[in-house]
Please model this.
Amino acid sequence: MSFREKSAWISFYSIAIFAVMWFTHIARVEFFHVPENPMLWFFGTLVTVLALEIGLQIWIRIQSPHEARTPKDERERLIDMKASRVAFYVLLVGAFSSIGTMHIPGSNRFTMAQTMMGSILVALLTRFATQIVLHRRDA
Amino acid sequence: MPKKTLSNDIRKLRFERGEMTQQDLADRIGVTRQTVNAIELGKYSPSLEVAFHIAEVFGVPLDQVFHYR
Model:
């Protein structure tokens, strides 16, 4: 597995862990009324996941110093562009879905904000997943 | 009109130059080994710049490395 693919896997898992932790927290607060501080949870989770991602990215750089030093070549830049394009459409659908929640009876700003948050996370996951697929398919 | 495809003789040229590795070629043209592999297998068509660079490394004209037929 190439250095870039490993890096994409790490980012994918970091975002996935963050998404699962965040929406588990939201579900606990919303449906089970567990008294938790959302901002503390948000930043706590964010810092933990960021630290994990940075640590793992440094670790793979130490494992493959030559590849890590090599700048992205034209094929890797193309993979990044293709992945960002796919993620953009996912984000677009998510953004419109967030607006759509305004028309659902019983929904409020909180629902809209969480839908937007979900859209951003799904778009990021799509971006890294597409990178992984393209690295594997073209390798 | 039949569809033309891009093929190449990079594998053969590497073999003729003392089994040059993909990593050696990649280092000399400034791309990753994975990209050389993708070009060699015909899964990725390189830019003109990279194509000329490959031909330069092997010391042959471009049409001896890449074929469009």
Summary: The mean pLDDT of chain A is 88.
